[in-house]
Amino acid sequence: MAIQNLKILGIDTSCDDTCIALLEIKNSKLEILSNIVSSQVKLHAKYGGVYPSLAIREHKKNLPLVFKKVLQQTQNKPFDLIGVTVGPGLEPCLWQGINFAKDLAKKFKKPLISVNHIEAHILANFIDRGLTSISFPAICLVVSGGHTGLILMNEIGKYQLIGETRDDAAGECFDKVARILGLDYPGGPAIAAKAIQIEGSRTPIILPRPMINQRNYDFSFSGLKTAVLYKVKGRKVNIPEVCREIQQAIIDVLIKKTIKAAKDYRVKSIILGGGVVANIELRKQIKEKIKKDFQLYIPDSKFCTDNGVMIAITAYFHRAKKTKEIKADANLKI
Ligand code: KG4
Ligand code: ZN
Fold this sequence. Notes:
The protein has 334 residues and is α/β, with parallel strands linked by helices. It folds into two domains: 5-128 and 304-317, Nucleotidyltransferase, domain 5 (2-Layer Sandwich), CATH 3.30.420; 138-298, Nucleotidyltransferase, domain 5, CATH 3.30.420. 39% of the residues lie in helices and 21% in strands. It is built from ten helices and ten strands. It has helices at residues 41-45, 52-73, 91-108, 117-123, 170-180, 187-195, 222-232, 239-264, 280-290, 308-317; strands at residues 6-12, 17-26, 29-39, 81-87, 112-116, 138-143, 148-155, 158-164, 269-273, 295-297. The protein has a five-stranded mixed beta sheet with strand order 3-2-1-4-5, with helices on both faces. Strands 8-7-6-9-10 form a five-stranded mixed beta sheet, sandwiched between helices. Helix 4 (117-123) crosses helix 10 and helix 6 (187-195) packs across helix 8 (239-264). The longest helix has 26 residues, at 239-264. The structure holds 5'-O-[(R)-(carboxyoxy)(hydroxy)phosphoryl]adenosine (KG4) and zinc ion (ZN). Zinc ion (ZN) is lined by residues 117, 121, 144, 274-275, 306.
């Protein structure tokens, strides 16, 4: 396929960040012209999670401001294509981005491409790599605040979900445990910052590794949260030790199941994506475990958490897609 030169606007409002980026793809090379993430973390912190009505209000307020910033940073460079997340995510939040993108598409007479947020977390791996190819088939582990899934990927656009969480997502588990321990939201980075104070991976605190040895590719993290609750209830615990162990329990399950899937499906590569992949220990330990058995692709940390660049690159790959009606789908599957 001939590579076109395109400037793509990527918009994401699936959760609590308002993200817009402008990405230029020129002779197979990528250049990020602007990448703005307007975080609502401080607002939601006091609720220990995302407070939907607050998130909707903030998206509405922030979208025009963030877009203006992008225009300023790029000296009003015209764009050729718009990509917007249509799901999965919080439906009213998704609509904010979709309606904004629809208005822009109409005003500037540009095509609008609908983007699946989970696929975007996977394709974030192309951001630093340019359009050089990834060896397929691959097993993708997508771990974020809303999702935990293992996906068999045969090529860009061809996916098969082979396992997912039966209850809480891994990021959600980090967030809920952090709340139990009185730490900041989002919980992942807060727990990682405490865990780093403990050397080695073993601590006197032992938590379960749910479903680690089961012969399927599903996950379950809500029991882990309950186990933490029981460990700390009415007791004075060493918070860094609890953090180290909760982080290690989540990492152990994620790595074991991912490698099992990669072996069972005899894939060439393992691809990681989603906010939890920003976790330094997870990145380090999976590299050590995989050795040279599979090609390993991990996005730069700043492209693991939600951003507009991953939406723009996904829209680029699907630029020929014609969608009759662009609408939010909170439970969109990959
Ligand atoms: O992908 P993302 O930005 O949003 C969703 O699509 O959900 O992921 C956010 C999640 C949060 O649950 C957050 O606690 C987690 O990613 N996270 C981390 C780290 N950074 C963010 N979890 C563990 N370690 C981190 N360093
Ligand atoms: Zn995400």
